[in-house]
Amino acid sequence: MTEAAPTRPQLAVSASIFRDGKILLVRRARAPAKGIYSLPGGRVEFGETLHAALAREVDEETGLAVDIIGLAGWREVLPAASDGSGRGGHYVILSFAARWRAGEIRLNDELDDFQWRAPDALDGLALTDGLPEIVAAARRLI
């Protein structure tokens, strides 16, 4: 059964995860943003706190445990529909700064690559819009 497209904005969370002075970037394996490096994260479920959603999404996508430091910023994303018929969604993403606490990377099927990068060395990668600014804001909180 195919899930009906949402008719309202979806609340999501993401994490700028810092470890040994580097930031974790993950590459999306499916639309929207297939082939683009971004931050781990995903939708907040009904009744779930932002921090609980972030911890769950980071664990599901990467296998890592993190300590959430604080809110680094937000992004509003309105991706095009994959069939070219207009908007494919509407997401409000609250992005948090976090520190790696435990675990090693094991990507789920939503992701196909990861890199630990110096926060000021993001050039040369296809990145989601506004990612360098969010990472810079998160770095100031760490």
Q: What does this molecule look like?
A:
With 142 residues, this protein is of the alpha+beta class. It has one domain (10-141): Nucleoside Triphosphate Pyrophosphohydrolase, CATH 3.90.79. The protein is built from 2 helices and 7 strands; from the N terminus they run E-E-E-E-H-E-E-E-H. Strands 1, 2, 3, 4, 5, 6 and 7 form a 7-stranded mixed beta sheet that branches. The longest helix has 13 residues, at 50-62. It is globular and about 45 Å long. It starts with 9 loop residues before the first strand and ends with a helix.
Keywords for this structure?
38% strand, globular, 142 residues, single chain, seven-stranded mixed beta sheet
Number of helices: 2
Q: Give the topology string: H per helix, E per strand.
A: EEEEHEEEH
Give a short account of the largest sheet. 7 strands, mixed
- Helix coverage percent of residues? 10-25%
* Cα-atom radius of gyration: 15 Å
In the CATH hierarchy, what is the architecture at level 2? Alpha-Beta Complex
Protein structure class:
alpha+beta
Number of domains: 1
Low-confidence stretches: none
CATH class: Alpha Beta
Report a brief summary of the structure:
The chain is an alpha+beta fold. The chain has two helices and seven strands, in the order ββββαβββα.
Write the layout of secondary structure elements.
Layout: E1 10-19, E2 22-28, E3 37-38, E4 41-43, H1 50-62, E5 65-77, E6 91-102, E7 111-117, H2 131-141
Parallel strand pairs: 1-6
Antiparallel strand pairs: 1-2, 1-4, 2-3, 2-7, 5-6
